Automatic annotation (TrEMBL):
InterPro entries: Metalloenz_LuxS/M16, Pept_M16_N, Pept_M16_Zn_BS, Peptidase_M16, Peptidase_M16_C
Domain Peptidase M16 C-terminal as annotated: residue spans: 264-445, 740-919
Originating species: Luteolibacter rhizosphaerae
Keyword rRNA processing among record annotations: no
Protein name, per record: Insulinase family protein
Domain Peptidase M16 N-terminal: 102-223
Length: 991
């Protein structure tokens, strides 16, 4: 089981830093792989559209106060102060007005480009009466600019295939605001729109008072959506740890009173003084000609002007390190898990990113990794009061350095956990680390850098662009993976347990720190109790850590290698299917989308369809103890040491509606080891007692979240939608605790040893090398069933009859509610074409929800709709809308969704709506063709079990393109009428 992350300052700071997105409910992931790229085209800016401004006087222009384009003092790039060279493929430049730009040609995926506008301003730059306006302003640039009215920007983007959330987004943090735009093609019209939009963000916002007033409700709704116990505790921890700093007073979401009432002048003040070219960096990553795009940047951004009196850098306040040990307690009955931590803060000033700087940080990084692994091992011992731990060092906003040691506490046993934390801290200070601990940390770190080099040719533009934007504030050099490896390798060669020990001591020894307890209920005399337990623990001697020998991997032989019984090459969509001599079915496809990467997925047996009768939650239990149990000859801890520096994944066992699955991701060099690991999991799973102990330790945390977050209510709703079927029902806590390892073994073993097995492999490999490895692993297993049982009765559940209303509640003081409306459709199983149409209908419906609920009513931040269902169950499918808002608004939100659904059923849709919904979907479809995950999961994984899937895949593009408004209108009429609606309310009720 995954250990819960403790609530510590550095982690929470990192979380909140990218928390506030303009249009999507989730924060952007840190440099994820997929992206778009583009080849340049000279494109004039689109004509200024005719708007209602022709009839009514516009609000005063938000222009910079200095109309001349004065030359700004040159800003440097990080490499100009470093002995580490930047990637030579990157083109760096500066305009006379101070705006910097970087262009990075990158061919994956082809024909696309990702644009990022980084502005070095955020909530820290706000005045007291502007708290929240940095984030509010990020919304407002989408609500009317020089070239786009509030009503035409989104439709224009949609018609070009740019999906809101999918291709365009933004976020605001403490010290930066970033606008993100991924263009799915390179037409003149597309580039013209992209550059015009980004330029308008810089200085073209109209900030119409009416639009500001309309958006206030949206911001408040977002504030409601973001509200959580974690966020409230974070505020308390900021106040405690950084009392003299500006940080606790400038959370990006801001103050409700400011959001409700700030006049236009305050927006204008912030916008004109801080959205300045001197603070801007424009990033282009994609399939581009750098010279042409450099021209586009100069053409579009050179006229940006700096104000006569630009905004100043804020005084971030004072950072005062604590002396000695200062105890602090944060309590809330809704805290998911108790945690303990040692945290210190001290002032920090920026340091150039140089070889010396990177190497100086390396020994401490290795030490922290080794200590976290030590906590992990302790957590697995019988009777341990912790479930995991971590060690970290962070530099935040070039202002504060934070050190944290934390443990997650099992079952509120913090009195027992504190000595564990204190003594391991002291054990490291006194004795350092073992050879095995540092060797494991070094091997994994070196391997990560080596793999970055091998996979560099297939890095995705979107991920690169986002990563570069995130690096602007910390001043790191954008160096090549080869250079990064060269720098770090020298440091790894000289890193020893002694140097890591010295680095840890230098960072932690003789430091005062905060002793922080975060728990559900503050104990009596908590501060004095914490201090006395800590002092008592300090009086006990600690011994040097035990040296542990690394043993070799014990699974290399699985029997006589099998043979290929049948082989079928399918030119379209370009894959090969085999039947092996033991009945294992093999599908594979070679691609070059991810250099040096191979993905594997084995579907085995029938999954939840065979779940033992009246054992609710047993699938969750079985998968958890299976993954945590390691192998018969190796515990998970053994495996982490054995596999250090190797590119294999374990713990990839899961249970879906109609299959058990084992997944893995590896490299061509480690493919044999990955195959051995997967086969060992099937033939000799560990089912260790430590896995059961860990699982049972985590049960209180699970039910704590069930009681105090929407998760519990959502699970109740899931059970209701499945007709109360035990397989989708949350068990009583005592029932979940009663399951045994033998129960899991009895259920899983028949499928793992004999069940139908379809193995799919996609990626960078050669058949001549891969196939013999499969034959000596999967091919050497015992005979398998060659057909899956039908199990018709197990595939049926009873969907609730409509119309109906249902309410679910959970115990929380966070005022939040969710309104859902569910319309039953045909099931997803064997209805792929229908679900393609429901997907587009869901986009159309989402757009109508956005206009009515978000833009007009301001009652929900991100209302949406879409289809869902199961490929394993017969007839289980539905289209649902969801709106999150205040509890008192849920009934109204559900009624609005029902009304909009009924209107769609009665009046249907038109070509314009269809085009705006379909174009972004087609762009995503095109993108998926260069995505190994799509080929593995959607195409290959069941292609022998369900041969018809391949015909559906071949016809996908043409099928989606053929959809008509009439078709969608008929589907809406069939399913979305008021009589078919299930109205669901999920609300918090403080008890």
């Amino acid at each position: 089981m995954r250990n819960p992350a403790p609530i510590i300052l550095s982690l929470l700071l990192a979380a909140v830093a990218a928390f506030f997105l303009i249009r999507a409910p989730e924060a952007p992931k840190p440099a994820p792989p997929p992206a778009e790229a583009a080849a340049p085209a000279e494109a004039p800016a689109p004509e200024v559209p005719k708007t209602e401004e022709a009839v009514k006087p516009p609000p005063p222009e938000v222009a910079k106060t200095d109309t001349s384009v004065a030359e700004a003092e040159p800003k440097t790039w990080p490499q100009e102060q470093s002995d580490i060279p930047a990637d030579p493929k990157a083109v760096f430049g500066k305009l006379p007005n101070g705006l910097r730009y970087m262009i990075y040609p990158n061919s994956e995926p082809p024909g696309r480009v990702s644009l990022r506008l980084h502005i070095a301003t955020g909530s820290l730059m706000e005045a007291e009466d502007q708290r929240g306006l940095a984030h509010f302003l990020e919304h407002m640039v989408f609500n009317g600019t020089k070239h786009f009215t509030p009503d035409d920007l989104i439709p224009k983007m949609q018609h070009l295939g740019i999906g809101f959330g999918a291709h365009v987004n933004a976020y605001t943090s403490f010290n930066e605001t970033v606008y993100m735009l991924d263009l799915p093609s390179l037409t003149d019209e597309m580039l013209g729109l992209g550059f015009t939009v980004m330029r308008d963000f810089g200085d073209g916002a109209k900030l119409d008072p009416e639009e500001i007033d309309k958006e206030r409700g949206v911001i408040l709704s977002e504030k409601t959506t973001r509200d959580s116990v974690g966020m409230r505790l974070m505020q308390q921890q900021f106040d405690e740890l950084l009392p003299e700093s500006l940080l606790p007073k400038r959370f990006p979401i801001g103050e409700e009173e400011v959001i409700k009432s700030a006049p236009r002048e305050r927006f204008v003040d912030y916008y004109t003084r801080y959205y300045t070219p001197e603070r801007m960096t424009f990033i282009v990553v994609g399939d581009v000609d750098a010279a042409k795009f450099e021209g586009l940047i100069k053409e579009n951004f050179s006229s940006l002007a700096n104000p006569a009196e630009p905004g100043k850098e804020p005084d971030l306040g004072k950072i005062t390190p604590v002396e000695g040990v200062k105890a602090a307690v944060f309590s809330d009955k809704e805290v998911p898990a108790t945690s303990l931590g040692f945290t210190f803060v001290q002032p920090f000033s920026p340091v150039p990113d140089t070889r010396t700087r990177r190497l100086s940080k390396l020994p401490l990084e290795l030490a922290q990794t080794a200590l976290a692994r030590r906590f992990e091992r302790i957590a697995k011992t019988e009777g341990s009061p912790i479930t995991g731990g971590s060690a970290s060092r962070d530099e935040l906003f070039n202002h504060v350095e934070v050190g944290s040691l934390d443990v997650a506490v099992a079952e509120d046993r913090w009195q027992e956990a504190l000595p564990v934390l204190e003594q391991e801290y002291r054990r490291v200070l006194e004795f350092g680390f073992t050879d095995a601990e540092i060797s494991e940390a070094k091997a994994n770190l070196l391997n990560a850098y080596q793999q970055a080099v091998k996979t560099a040719p297939s890095r995705k533009s979107e991920g690169l662009a986002t990563g570069i934007a995130r690096s602007i504030s910390d001043g790191s050099v954008f160096s090549t993976p080869e250079m990064n490896l060269e720098v770090i390798k020298g440091g790894l060669d000289t890193a020893t347990p002694e140097t890591c020990h010295a680095a840890f001591r230098e960072f932690w020894a003789d430091k005062g720190f905060h002793l922080v307890l975060t728990t559900k209920e503050e104990p009596d005399n908590a501060l004095s109790t914490l201090t006395s337990i800590y002092e008592e623990s300090r009086s006990k001697e600690v011994e040097a850590p035990e040296q542990k020998r690394v043993i070799p991997f014990a699974y290399s032989e699985f029997g006589t290698p099998g043979t290929v019984k049948t082989r079928k090459e399918i030119a379209d969509p370009g894959l090969i299917q085999c039947m092996l001599s033991n009945g294992v079915r093999l599908n594979f496809k070679k691609t070059d989308f991810e250099k040096g990467s191979v993905r594997l997925l084995a579907r085995i047996g029938s999954g939840k369809l065979t779940q033992p009768k009246d054992m609710p939650g047993f699938d969750f239990f079985a998968a958890s103890v299976f993954n945590a149990g390691g192998l018969g000859k190796h515990s998970n801890d053994d495996l982490q040491q054995i596999l250090a520096g190797r590119n294999v994944t374990g713990g990839g066992f899961a249970i879906s509606d109609d299959a058990f699955t084992l997944s893995g991701r590896t490299t061509p060099e480690d493919l044999e080891l990955q195959l051995q690991l997967m086969c060992a999991a099937m033939t000799d799973p560990g089912f260790r007692e430590e896995a059961l102990v860990q699982f049972r330790k985590g049960i209180p945390e699970i039910y704590q979240q069930v009681r105090h977050t929407p998760m519990g209510a959502q699970m109740e709703m899931e059970s209701w939608l499945h007709g109360g079927d035990f397989r989708w029902t949350l068990p009583e806590e005592s029932k979940l605790s009663s399951y045994t390892l033998e129960d899991a073994r009895k259920w899983l073993t028949p499928a793992l040893t004999k069940g139908y097995l379809e193995l799919s492999i996609v990626g960078d490999f050669d058949e001549s090398t891969m196939l013999p490895l499969v034959l000596k692993t999967f091919g050497a297993l015992g005979p398998r069933e060659t057909e899956k049982p039908a199990l018709p009765a197990a595939r049926k559940v009873n969907f609730p009859k409509a119309p109906a209303e249902k309410s679910f509640t959970y115990d929380s003081k966070i005022p939040q509610g969710t309104a859902l409306v569910v319309w039953k459709t045909e099931g997803w199983r064997n209805n792929t074409k229908l679900f393609r149409r429901l997907n587009i209908l869901g986009e159309i419906f989402s757009d109508r929800l956005r206009k009515e609920i978000r833009e007009k009513l301001g009652a929900s931040y991100s209302p949406n709709a879409g289809p869902d269902g199961s490929e394993g169950l017969e007839g289980y499918g539905f289209l649902a809308s969801e709106s999150v808002g205040k509890p008192e608004d849920t009934k109204r939100l559900a009624e609005v969704a029902v009304t909009l659904g009924a209107e769609l059923a009665e009046k249907g849709t038109d070509e314009d709506e269809l085009d705006r919904a379909r174009k972004p979907i087609l762009a995503q479809i095109e993108k998926s063709k260069r995505d190994n995950s799509y080929w593995l999961v959607t195409v290959l994984s069941q292609s022998q079990e369900q041969p018809e899937r391949l015909d559906l895949i071949r016809g996908r593009d043409a099928d989606v393109a053929s959809i008509t408004p009439k078709e969608l209108s008929e589907i809406a009429k069939k399913y979305l009428g008021q009589k078919n609606a299930l109205k669901v309310q999920i609300t918090s009720e403080a008890k």
